[in-house]
Specification:
elongated, four-stranded antiparallel sheet
């Protein structure tokens, strides 16, 4: 009588059990890796702080009211002084006096300020933000006078040129006539030129350098 050998399947449950255990360990390892990936980035988030700036004046320009000038600088209207964080708008200055910029990341920032007539053009301030901060930027007014006296005739129209920022002064004009006091202008070098006038010798240009209040 012929007999056939039948392969036994008794070893398969053990193999299945081993494969299941390996799969479970693999899943647990993956979950652990995912948990690690979730937790690590959260520790790297930068701290954020509030940053505020007050805008004020050292004093008022000559011939103006201190109260009126301070109100002009601190006005929330579009004509008032403004400040802004350089990277928050490519140098735009849109924040009013006393405004608080929330949730600014810690680190170094450049702060810009709006140019205001009759005050020195602001220079950007670099700050290291490590906590909630309130600063004050002080606008410094022009306070110099340039006086020109003409003798011997009348109706002399003369002009002034300068590499300084004096076109930001409300006293700036393309030309002046006869005796004139230009108030107030910033420090810097100035060149005064005179026109040709019949029967008069034309004086050479006059150079002057204003280095302090004068």
């Amino acid at each position: 009588m012929n007999s056939k050998r039948v392969k036994s399947n008794k070893s398969r449950p053990a193999l299945c059990h081993s494969a299941l255990a390996w799969a479970r360990r693999r899943v647990c390892s993956l979950l652990g890796a995912l948990a690690l990936l979730v937790l690590i980035p959260s520790a790297g988030f930068a701290a954020t702080y509030n940053l505020a700036y007050n805008l004020d004046i050292v004093t008022n320009p000559p011939g103006t009211s201190y109260v009126a000038e301070r109100n002009r600088i601190q006005s929330p209207l579009s004509s008032g002084a403004k400040w802004g964080i350089d990277s928050y708008g490519s140098g735009l200055t849109t924040n009013n006096h006393g405004y608080t910029e929330p949730l600014v990341q810690e680190g170094w920032w450049s702060i810009n300020f709006r140019t205001m007539t009759n005050y020195y053009v602001p220079v950007s301030s670099d700050i290291n933000l490590t906590n909630h901060m309130t600063n004050t930027y002080w606008y410094v007014p022009y306070s110099n006078t340039l006086s020109v006296t003409i003798t011997g005739t009348n109706g002399v129209v003369w002009s002034v040129a300068s590499a300084s920022e004096w076109i930001n002064s409300s006293a700036y004009k393309p030309s002046y006539t006869d005796n004139f006091d230009i108030v107030a202008i910033p420090t810097g070098s100035y060149t005064i030129t005179f026109p040709l006038m019949a029967v008069y010798d034309t004086p050479p240009p006059v150079f002057t350098n204003i280095t302090a209040v004068s």
